[in-house]
Specification:
By secondary structure, the protein is an all-alpha fold. Helix content is 83%, strand content 0%. α5 runs antiparallel to α9.
């Protein structure tokens, strides 16, 4: 196994990441279009009253929405296909390692292997498709929208930026707390899987094992509840900051409009822009949350495999699989495979 999750991403899907990055770039560039069209539609309706101009602008808006939605649909399907190839690759690696590993015949070790194949490979492999394209698209969207807002009204853009920067104080602290509990949960899950394989062996199960099982289940429950508390507290604070941003835009923008220094369409574009900022910002926070947790999970998996892939065993496992499907959305790229 490669040393880090991003090395693994690059080894298994380098060319696909380039395609995803190109699609992500197109998507974040297109985010500025709806904001400008909204501003022009509102201003045209209020100032000129020309229905024909409003109709043409609305048709352009609809065409932009359809085009962007189609690109995003293909982008998401292609990314999902990359994720599933990575999950399959990880499961094959674990299976091949178990087949070639002599000390893995212990029931507890077999239970750990089952835990990795059935549950841990899914989130780690699912991170591969969004590892590069997701931050590129969300950061690009944030920069594009903030730049557009700064051109329209620098002071309001600066006010919005300050409100969002407040989140930089509490998000890292809450995320570190989540990461510690996620790592502990994985370890307890592995202990539980290994113990269950041993406990289900023929013969009576001692009472002490039942107690140990109950304690591990309770521990997992407690860790999950703590993760829920931290996660949803973070979401609550982020949503609160966003709503204060909208209130600030309405307050400052309304004052400018009343004094004839700002168009109504600009205020509408700003409120829509805050929405355009809030969504990618939340997605970016989710990405870094998932990235840090996935790094922990990947280190735990690579620690179990410990070393290079037994190539002969991998080839034997792969040969037993069904042929790989062709890439979706017309992208004729080879299916994921070890390089």
């Amino acid at each position: 196994m490669p040393a880090g999750i991003f090395t693994y991403v690059w080894q298994t899907s380098a060319r696909r990441q380039v395609w995803l990055a190109l699609l992500a770039t197109v998507l974040f560039i297109l985010t500025m279009g709806p904001l400008e069209l909204q501003r022009r539609i509102v201003n045209s309706a209020l100032e000129s009253g020309a229905l024909g101009q409003v109709v043409w602008l609305c048709l352009a808006y609809a065409a932009l929405v359809l085009g962007t939605g189609g690109i995003k649909l293909g982008f998401n399907i292609y990314r999902g296909w990359i994720n599933e190839n990575a999950v399959r690759d990880l499961r094959r690696r674990v299976y091949a390692h178990a087949a070639a590993c002599e000390h893995c015949k212990d029931p507890k070790q077999e239970g750990v292997g089952m835990s990795i194949v059935l549950s841990e490979a899914e989130p780690v492999g699912g991170f591969v498709g969004l590892s590069i394209s997701e931050p590129l698209m969300q950061i690009g969207t944030l920069v594009t929208v903030f730049a557009y807002m700064a051109v329209l009204q620098p002071w309001m853009a600066a006010f919005s930026l300050v409100l969002f920067s407040v989140q930089a104080f509490f998000i890292p602290r809450l995320q570190r707390a989540i990461n510690r509990r996620a790592a502990a949960r994985i370890q307890v899950m592995r202990e539980l899987s290994g113990a269950m394989v041993a406990d289900f062996a023929p013969g009576p199960t001692p009472v002490a094992r039942w107690h140990a099982f109950g304690e591990r289940v309770d521990r997992i429950f407690g860790l999950n509840m703590q993760i829920y508390w931290f996660k949803f507290t973070m979401n609550f604070l982020m949503n609160l900051t966003h709503q204060f941003g909208i209130i600030g835009v309405l307050l400052v923008g309304g004052w400018y409009v009343l004094h004839g220094q700002l168009e109504v369409g600009t205020v509408v574009a700003f409120i829509s822009g805050l929405k355009q900022i809030n969504d990618p910002w939340g997605d970016l926070v989710d990405y870094f949350r998932e990235m840090t947790v996935t790094q922990v999970k990947y280190r735990l998996i690579s620690g179990i495999l410990g070393g290079p892939m037994p190539h002969a065993a991998y080839v034997a496992a792969a040969a037993a699989e069904t042929p790989q499907p062709s890439a979706p959305v017309g992208l004729s790229l080879a299916a994921a495979r070890p390089e």
